[in-house]
Amino acid sequence: MPAPERPGREPTLPAGEDIAGGIALRIAAAGCFSIMAAVLKLASRDGVMAPEMLFYRAFFGLPVVLAWVLTQPGGLASLKTRRPLAHVGRSVLGIVSILCVFQTLTLLPLADATTLSFTAPIFATLLSFLILKEAVGPRRWAAVAVGFIGVVIVMRPGAGDHAVPVEGIAFGLVAALLTAGVTVTLRQLRDTEHVAAIVFWFFVGSSTVGAILLPFVGHWHSPLTFALLVGSGLAGGLAQLYMTASLQKAPVAVVAPFDYLQIVGAIVFGWWLMSTTPTLSTLAGAALIASSGLYTAWREHIRRKAALIQPTAPPV
């Protein structure tokens, strides 16, 4: 499940790019995100609620992130921030987004919930147009339309008892919209903040909010369920690190398409662990949403390449 750390601009790469290594790391990230979503879906069957998922995912993922920070140039010094309020805003958006993602997991089959999370690039295009005033051409608007058609197909309107619960769809789309908002925020944060600071302080914020909510919604679970929650934190932390490392080896346009392997992972884990088989509507809708996202990513890559060869405009 996409987590959400889409860079607003590609990092400067070393002279020798490692495309194969970057792709391998991105596939590993997709696998870890798939595992995280699957174990949280299993945990939800034991009554685990979204705020509990938020806390355990962040709390047990934090040591993994901190260990990674210590290996980076500058170590703990990279956690210093010049824009603490911007981190607060980014964290609020991200935390509410993740709560909606986890609530979607409790309401929908794993494949449907994962598919809806990939509508975030569609909303990112809309927000870029509305907030950042970026130009959006007719082909990108067409991709947005195709993506929303995919959402309608996943919803299966008119299917009666077999239709996807409306509240699950609503939480999934709100989560994607907020994730897109995080993407827009990250474009601004990454101009001044180290990626280690962005990731670390978000995990700290998530742990804090989860700890505040835990007394109100948390309750005792079986040892197996607690093990699943711990596993979700470890998998989520590793996924974040693999995703970040992939961008240090290859351009985002090369590795980002492999995020869609999470849909495959959701289908496999849903069938293997929960004996749920995706419907034809889910598969067809997922294909359209993935096609929309992939095309949007490709057009973004083309747009950025074109911008690099244009004369730099003076600051306004």
Give a short summary of the structure.
The chain has 316 residues and is mostly helical.
Overall 3D form = globular
Instruction: State Rg.
Output: 19 Å
How would you classify the helix and strand content by structural class?
mainly alpha
In what range is the share of β-strand residues?
under 5%
Query: How many helices?
Result: 12
End-to-end CA span: 38 Å
Oligomeric state: single chain
Give the H and E element order.
HHHHHHHHHHHH
Flag low-confidence runs: 2-16, 310-316
Largest sheet: none
Mean pLDDT: 83
Q: What is the strand tally?
A: 0
Share of helix, binned: over 70%
Keywords:
single chain, 316 residues, mainly alpha, 12 helices, 73% helix, globular, disordered N terminus, disordered C terminus
